[in-house]
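=== RUN LOG ===
request id: a7f3
mode: sequence -> structure
chains: 1
length: 286
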Amino acid sequence: MSDRLPSSINYHITERCNYQCRFCFAYYHQYSKELCLKDSLKLIDILAEAGCKKLNFAGGEPTMISHLPLLINHAKKNNLFVSLISNGSGITEGFIESCKDSIDLIGLSIDSKLNSIEIALGRTLKKSYQRNSDFSHVDLINNCSKLIKKYGINLKINTVLTDLNWKEDLTKLILELNPIRWKILEVLYIKKINERFFNTHKSLRPWQIDIFKKKHQALNPIFESKDLIIDSYCMITPDGRFYQNSNHLHNYSNSILKIGVIKAFNQLSFSKLKYEIRDGQYFKRL
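=== RESULT ===
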């Protein structure tokens, strides 16, 4: 049991996404209904009161929520370090202008320097969102990174390591993007969520991971194995309950707004040691 939250919390405000990443674990079944703006604001308030110091807005694709800038600005009013993880599709000049004084960091996801690999992974727009067949996720991330830096916002890059990209050398790409933090996450299997990806793709062998890590060690990336990821994140569903990736399953608490933040948090497992090993409090140094 704990009487306090970890300092960093990921609020997955929506399950909706305009991408089709085949390894994605951000599906919540009956817990995918989004909170209304009023309840989201209230949730942010009680998280801050309970000890949260950093709130990371995630999804799905969080920029698909029209009132996201209001939530970002409200989180900053609560003196939180505010970050966002995005596929880049909604990171426009207009979006940044609406919350430029409140957002401390934007994380972008890119797994390869090759669009063919990103397409194979599903890291590309769904057909219903594509205006043309020449859409390039790699080009999008390059353009977004420049825009983010134009506004003086910290840039983070997330890369999911799979059997499709472990042979790549991303050194040139990462040097060009020049993030303050590059995080590499081993693809994580979640039962009844992303099984189809693992039906056609093999889990990585330790030696494959070692080759990728050694190839990029000069860039000092943060590597998170699937074992380190499990139980080390404090995450909230779109409908406002904590959830955890434990034993390769999603486990859920009751509603935070109904039973209170600490009681809900204590319904799930959380490894403070793993959280510290993966440097979950890095934001305090920025």
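=== NOTES ===
DSSP finds twelve helices and ten strands in the chain.
The chain has one domain: 8-285.
=== END ===
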